[in-house]
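A quick word before the example. In earlier lectures we treated sequence and structure as two separate objects. From today on, think of them as two lines of the same record. Here is Cysteine desulfurase written that way.
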Amino acid sequence: MHIDSEWVRAQFPAFAEPSLQGQAFFENAGGSYTCQQVIDRLHRFYTQRKVQPYGAYAASRMGGEEMDEARSRMAAILGVMPEELSFGPSTTQNAYVLAQAFGQMMQPGEAIIVTNQDHEANTGPWRRLAERGIEIREWQVDPETGHLDPAALEKLLDEKVRLVCFPHCSNVVGEINPVTEITALAHAAGAFVCVDGVSYAPHGFANVGDLGPDIYLFSAYKTYGPHQGIMVIRRALAQLLPNQAHHFNGDVLYKRFTPAGPDHAQIAASAGMADYIDAFHAHHIGGAAEATARGIAVHDAMRAHETALLQPLLDAMSARNSVRVIGPTNADERAPTVALALDRSGVEMAQALAERGIMAGGGTFYAGRALSAMGVDQEQGVLRLSFTHYTTKAEMDKLLNALDDLL
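And the structure line, produced from the sequence above:
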């Protein structure tokens, strides 16, 4: 399906911002532009509802209603129940709280499986449980491709494993991991599953209900929203894990894993992400559909647009002897987050691109374990080029021309 890029970009004030004119944004994996719907809700909350929510007076009541709206509408898009979705200050913080809960529930000698494909900020909290006597097993990537082989996971699974943690896709490898298949393997072995969706969610919200993991985490600031971590914990697991919040909040599922007070305004503004999905659906697809179906349709449209733009970049880079493309070179198998190992520093290359109006990133991106496993020099790092559905063919052409000049 063809995306109306003019309409899409009109939903994002950054594209009309004079200071950003002439700049093509290719560091979306570090955080996306924010849509107008989120900005409008945030502004309204700060100007009209900036009081303690859930009180008897109108401003307080409406503030609480907007927070509840955000939870219920985002849960519907993700295919889960509203009480299974909670907000926190960041995905890393959410993962840390969850790790504390599992650490309290598990016994020394029991095991958690993590990968070396993960973003360090989200695998680190699990690895630290080794200090409590919990065994940490590492599901390792293929050193040539960065691929996580489910057959290798099966060899790590036994009756000691209580949890399997892995990314929906890595922030440098980019390959989309088969969440449903991996979840089935883990569940068959009696383990719970935690999926880091941070690098996947910007390319269309996943139907977590269909995918099947027990935990799914992502960051709203990478999905056109405010700086919040969004966490789905399915009811059966949420009730089993020890409460991490104030004792008087322990019987409220979505409060059990939020030990600090929530950011009222940013939670309320998160409903703007649902507004954007609905507006996108109405403009491009139309017709009546329930929220989960709208989310799936928009997800598929975004993915199709991104995949069409991504393949020429992968083809051009994989044809160069001086460039190593990290991860798959088939756009259908990956997200449009492309790490390139070059014969020079990734940071230096990003600086050279910046001088040509390309905003990109260089370094290791908290993915040192994955890059080291694949033989990438940590000092040199990689150049990372990442985009979303609001990127245009003209911007891709500008990027390819700049890369041609520099390589």
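Notice the following. The radius of gyration is 21 Å. We will return to this example when we discuss secondary structure assignment.
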